[in-house]
Amino acid sequence: MGRLIDGQWVDQWYDTSSTGGAFKREDAGFRDWIEPGARFAPASGRYHLYVSLACPWAHRTLIMRHLKGLESHIGVTVVHPHMLDQGWQFAEPEPLYGYRCMHQLYTHTRPDYTGRVTVPVLWDRQEETIVNNESAEIIRIFNSAFDDVTGNRDDYYPSALQNEIEWINERVYSDINNGVYKAGFATEQDVYEQACRELFAALDWVEVLLGERRYLAGSELTLADWRLFTTLVRFDPVYHGHFKCNLQRIEDYPNLLGYLRELYQWPGIADTVDFEHIKQHYYYSHSSINPNRIVALGMGPDLHVPHQRDRKVYATEQQES
Ligand SMILES: N[C@@H](CCC(=O)N[C@@H](CS)C(=O)NCC(=O)O)C(=O)O
């Protein structure tokens, strides 16, 4: 894996030497928004999404693309699961330019780009540029920008719940979504231990919350849930072993397990989960963590078992009724 420096690809692992062994995630470089009347206006067929099926951040965007009925309006290209010395690559040349590597789309947009080359990427075919490569923003764009194109007005970020959603997102992002990476990429024992303990403290907190609420922000499924889901579904098969997040498994948390099953069983969601890509990517790509590239066998809990979440009355529902 590597990064672009002044438009040149340089093969280098994350630098943890200047941060005392801690992994610090770089901010995404492209942050434009799609909205009616703006430079990037919603339109069917104009935008294209580049994803990895292994990546939890990209996975969120695939989920929202499905839930918002965007499949026939926004095309998708999937990268090869192994991220090696050229970073993300395409198994077949990608459809718009025939590029082999993800970094070529970054330098197509900005020839002197400096930064990491990450997925997801939301591409504008009209202006031939990256619109946005921050998943937290892409899912909000998908939530509402194309409603007039699709007629789908389902709202996973309702204004009445936004404060609650953002409050939950903050801890879920820092300690869980990014927390597994902070534990897994740490190169000092104390840094790893702190990240791992914060991660499990946050999972304990969510476990309690999900005993009181059907979903994270209350009785409605929101973006906060899909943001957590993509980490939970990778947890037992990958993060528990590969990233040493092994104080407990999701399978050991009754509420989290039922919740994970419910979200997995949501119409169309299982089709967005590719365990083969997930396991291949992590175990094979991170050679500093797993130099022999042995892919662990465990698949995590059976997600097809009935979730039973609908059998319970939650405190938030009692308050609402
Ligand atoms: N802030 C970004 C992070 C995306 C990200 O880090 N994606 C990983 C894959 S899981 C990646 O592409 N990493 C390549 C790298 O860091 O060089 C987002 O949420 O969209």
From TrEMBL:
Signal peptide: none
Lineage: superkingdom: Bacteria
Gene3D superfamilies from the UniProt entry: 1.20.1050.10, Glutaredoxin
Active-site residues from the entry: C55, Y181
InterPro entries, alphabetized: Glutathione-S-Trfase_C-like, Glutathione-S-Trfase_C_sf, Glutathione_S-Trfase, Glutathione_S-Trfase_N, GST_Omega-like_C, GST_Omega/GSH, Thioredoxin-like_sf
Entry binding sites for glutathione: W88, R116, V117, T118, V119, E134, S135
GST C-terminal domain sequence ranges: 158-285
Gene Ontology CC: cytoplasm
UniProt cross-references to Pfam families, sorted A to Z: GST_C_2, GST_N_2
One annotated GO molecular function: glutathione transferase activity
Sites marked Lowers pKa of active site Cys: Y239, Y282
The protein, known as: Glutathione-dependent reductase
Highest classification ranks of the organism: Bacteria, Pseudomonadati, Pseudomonadota, Gammaproteobacteria, Pseudomonadales
